[in-house]
What does this fold into?
Amino acid sequence: MMLAQLSFATNDMLVKIIYQNYQEIFVLNQIIFIRGIFACLVIGLFLFLKNQLDIKIVFSSKKLAIRGILESLCCICFFIGIAKLPFAKVYVLLSLAPILLTIYGAIFFKEKVRWRRWSAVFLGFAGVVVVVNPTDLKYGYYFIFPLLAAILLTFRDIYTKNIKENFHSLQIAFITCLIVTIFFGVLSIYKFYNFNSKEYSIMFLSSFFLSLGYIFSIATIKVTLVSVTSTFRYSVILWGILFGYFIFNEIPRMNTYIGAFLIIVSGLIIISRQKQLGKIK
It folds into this structure.
């Protein structure tokens, strides 16, 4: 799981490197489109080798298509955050997703959420306030985009749980990646950029790490319990801090560390409680 998070963070870091060559938000559309073509080919190859590249089954599911649309909207918000905010801060704010799942369950599914989990929810939101630091909005209101990404991520995960068909995880990853690619391909029509060979190489490398992240994540889920692996998802914050420092010369402020600590503790309390209640194994 830690290798999966490292792979995803490496993919995001490579996207940001290309973005910094242009400093235009619309360049993200074409980057994600081209990266998506490469990623679809890599994931499709893995499915072919496993004899699970069943195009008819994958494309016949409207639910997978809707999941892909949710993923596309999440990508827009996430990569705007990656482009405009310090690298580590985006991952810290995105870690709000488990907290939002608890709130969603309490409101819409009438789940009983007792004082311990509500305390964790308030602790998580306190962490967000500390990270954002409303008294000093150095990066304006761009912090809203990772929060929107966390909300969309929550809806995506809830929607995925309601998909009853027995799809292989890589099939879900493939159709999701394909829809995201098509989505950003349409957005790319707005403005076209001429990339050089080095930038195409970086995009190919980015797609490789994206595919690797999916594969590591799926492999982990197959061999061990969700309650064991969930805590290691927070390692993406560590990779974000390291990449931010060594690649982008970003030194996180103390409020980012404190806020990250509060959000992680909040998430761990919720995961622990869900395990006790038998909601995750």
Q: What stands out?
A: The chain has 13 helices and no strands. The first helix runs from residue 2 to 20. The two ends are 16 Å apart (CA to CA). Residues 2-276 form one domain.
